[in-house]
Amino acid sequence: MSDVNPEKLLPGHTPEPRHTLSGKLKNLYVWRAPDGVLMLREVLQDKDQTREVIEFNCSQWGYEVDQMAPRTTEERVQFGKDAFQKQLRVLEPALLEDGSVVFPYLENSETMTLFLRKASLEEATPRIQELFMDLANAHSQGIVYGDRWPDNILIDADKGVVHIDFDLKLGEFGKELEVAQLMLYTLALGVGENDTSSSRYEDLVHDLMARSPIKYDKVKVAHFLFTKIKMAPHYNHLQSIAERVVGRLGWSVASV
Ligand SMILES: Nc1ncnc2c1ncn2[C@@H]1O[C@H](COP(=O)(O)OP(=O)(O)OP(=O)(O)O)[C@@H](O)[C@H]1O
Ligand SMILES: [Mg+2]
Fold this sequence. Notes:
This protein is α+β, with helices and mostly antiparallel strands. 42% of the residues lie in helices and 18% in strands. A hairpin with a 3-residue loop joins strand 8 and strand 9 (160-163).
């Protein structure tokens, strides 16, 4: 439960007893507004684990540590507002007096990790299309979300794909890194328990990348894909799947 009286920050709001979510960097509290709408209040944790998170992420992805940095609260709010205004798939944030940030809370959502693991190809296809189209749309407008792993993406019953968590910003090759992340995680989440030789999202990921309006540095994207696979032994089976997709796209890792 939040240690702050919501009356002072958001008059009329009441804490929801059933929720206090916590991530690695934040505590999250759910409040109910007078009109019944649920809000999520984010408070940065006292213990700053940002450095550890950055080092872990960069080592996984072969990304330069000095190219990944935390966004300040003000930057996160401004970033969220800009992205919302550009009609990207994000929630509109608001900054409270105590420096915490509130978002609409999506009650009927689940993370992309949970959704894609169990979805049929038919259910997953429109969501994966939204994901890749939104990413191209964001990148074409200069927006780089950062840290795009599938627990930072929600699938909401009404809104479809929604990006959350813009705590980290990327520098050089940021666009290529997050394209690679979304390609790889999508492929990984489409691998069945009994068949690790293919992913049910292989053709879809290939088609979406082949039709992407953005001309990414394809060699760099391929490099990020294979760096990740080599770093994580439990993803070993993905190597041949990703190789197939990258090969069909005509990309290579040769000159990196
Ligand atoms: N607006 C929201 N509506 C519903 N659920 C949410 C919302 N925002 C966050 N969550 C849930 O809380 C979890 C953690 O949120 P978030 O990723 O912002 O925190 P975090 O501290 O960065 O976590 P991590 O470091 O583990 O990524 C999400 O994976 C999601 O399940
Ligand atoms: Mg997160």
